[in-house]
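Sequence design from tokenized structure. All designs in this work follow the same two-part layout: the structure record, then the generated sequence. An example of the structure record is given first.
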């Protein structure tokens, strides 16, 4: 059964990263992520137009965390509190213990293995602490860096999904450890 209690909010750490809850102090970095054309070219989401939009987004995310609907981490480097990216779990289906993963990373930090390290930690947390049985990721078919990341993490491409929407691909990962 899926463990859906997100309080207290889980702070996750790795060798080079600290993942914590979003704060209003992250508004500049969230604004930068949500207005960056390179990050947003594969995402179907409204762009932020002001710091107010970024603050509203942070408040909405934190409300969803408080309702146990989502987990959304600010990714920071160990020893720094400056947000360089985000990673989240959302779309929880409690009956079948499923969720979706999403992530974004500032272009100046891409290509360093940061998102691989963050995603490995979040997948481990989802499978072993939350008891998620299946995790999915839906992305644009041209988003090769994200596809490479998911394949590195051993996500499997779902061919049937592409028939429904040829611009998108879906990957999934089954929690084999919990099924043994």
């Amino acid at each position: 059964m899926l463990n859906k209690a997100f309080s207290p909010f889980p702070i996750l750490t790795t060798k080079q990263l600290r993942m914590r809850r979003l704060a209003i102090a992250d508004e500049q970095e969230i604004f930068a992520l949500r207005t960056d054309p390179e990050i947003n070219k594969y995402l179907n989401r409204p762009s932020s137009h002001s710091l107010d939009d970024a603050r509203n987004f942070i408040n909405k995310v934190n409300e969803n965390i408080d309702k146990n609907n989502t987990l959304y981490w600010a990714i920071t480097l160990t020893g720094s509190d400056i947000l360089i990216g985000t990673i989240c779990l959302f779309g929880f289906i409690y009956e079948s213990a499923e969720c979706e993963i999403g992530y974004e990373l500032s272009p100046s930090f891409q290509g360093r293995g940061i998102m691989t390290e963050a995603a490995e930690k979040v997948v481990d947390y989802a499978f072993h602490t939350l008891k998620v049985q299946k995790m999915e990721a839906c992305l644009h078919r041209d988003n090769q860096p994200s596809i490479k990341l998911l394949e590195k993490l051993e996500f499997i491409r779902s061919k049937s999904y592409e028939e429904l929407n040829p611009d998108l691909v879906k990957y999934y990962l089954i929690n084999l450890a919990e099924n043994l």
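Strands lie at 12-13, 17-21, 71-77, 83-93, 98-105, 134-140, 156-158, 168-174. We note this feature because it recurs in several other targets discussed in the main text.
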